[in-house]
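Suppose you are handed only these lines of text.
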Amino acid sequence: MKRHYYCPTCNATLNPNVKVILTAVKDSSHGLILLSPQPGNYEVIAAEELNLHAGDLLELRCPACGRNLASRVNDNLAEIGFRLSNGLDGRACFSRRVGEHATFFITSEEVRSYGADADTYSTLNFFGAGDVETPER
Ligand SMILES: [Zn+2]
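From them, the structure of the protein bound to zinc ion can be written out as follows.
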């Protein structure tokens, strides 16, 4: 099923073609990073100037509006919106740490986790109190 990813702030489409495109900032360097839209696929294409190494913690930003995509749920995660072709809407949270494989797809019904490191975050409450989902359309 085709997944449409979007910025939770400006609604810009983050996968206009195949890959999810984000801006990554590491120390004083920044560049584009391309992620697989498939849950559990951790292939990453990163701009050479980012000089990524396992363990690096990246600041991820929307390439359209520049907004920091850090998750409110956990500081190590980034968060973007997703929508399926059947209209199901939710949030995708994933690790900002290079080489850490943890991804969560959260809808109002359930949390689906992917990646070998997902258990590290098993105590998180993705439906956290006060985090009210309000439809924006
Ligand atoms: Zn944006």
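What can we learn from it? The longest strand covers residues 77-84. The chain has one domain: 3-121.
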